[in-house]
Amino acid sequence: MDTLNWIGASALENWHVWFVAIVLIVAAVIDGIELRVPNWITFPLIISGWVYSASASWMAGDGVLVGLYWSFIGTAVGLALLMPAYAIGGMGAGDVKLLAGVGAWMHGEHTFYAFCLTAVVGAVLAVGMAARNKALKKHTAQAKMILAEIATIRDPRQLSEIAAERKSSMLLLPYGIPIAIGSIAYFAWVGLLV
């Protein structure tokens, strides 16, 4: 019974992390089905993160602006980490906004580390998808070509146009799934869920 009480108390203390995890799961399911993360998930996640951070900071006696500051920093970190991939057509805007929402709630440091694990999960899933479809060689060649284009072209608009033309020949990874898996795994790893 003591273990159950400890789990319950811990979950109440970390309810905001559980909330983010649940939203990430919902977003991942939708992204897996529709290949997009809708605005009705991302924008409320971002705004509620700002409200939560301001309220928690105020209740801790630090004032509203301290919490808002850290929440805005986290939002900016989330945007900055995925914006380059979005700018060259490598991912959708919903994925970028989803990570920004994680940042609004969890702030910059946790968002950065969650992103690092997300990148690993995304790479593993991409290789797994290509291998499952018996297209590993084809997609490895495409990845090398994309990296060469990024290194030589350097114009995001032109890279985005090339990506749009190539999109029909590529396996599309709904990146909300790696964001959810990577973020939740990071939260669990550092003890934020218990």
Keywords:
mainly alpha, 8 helices, 82% helix, 194 residues
Structure notes:
This protein has 194 residues and is mainly α. It has one domain. The chain is 82% helix and 0% strand. The chain has eight helices and no strands. The radius of gyration is 18 Å and the shape is globular.
Cα-atom Rg, whole angstroms? 18 Å
Mean pLDDT rating: 90
How many domains in all?
1
| Helicity, as a percent range | over 70%
Number of strands: 0
How much β-strand is present in the residues?
A: under 5%
Span between N and C termini?
16 Å
Instruction: Assign an overall shape.
Output: globular
Helix- and strand-based class?
mainly alpha
Q: Largest beta sheet, briefly?
A: none
The string of secondary-structure elements, in order, is HHHHHHHH
Point out poorly predicted stretches: none
The number of helices is 8
Summarize the model shown.
The protein is mainly α. It has helices at residues 2-13, 15-34, 39-59, 64-87, 93-132, 136-152, 156-166, 176-189.
Provide the fold topology.
Layout: H1 2-13, H2 15-34, H3 39-59, H4 64-87, H5 93-132, H6 136-152, H7 156-166, H8 176-189
Helix pairs in contact: 2-5, 2-8, 3-4, 3-5, 4-5, 5-6, 5-8
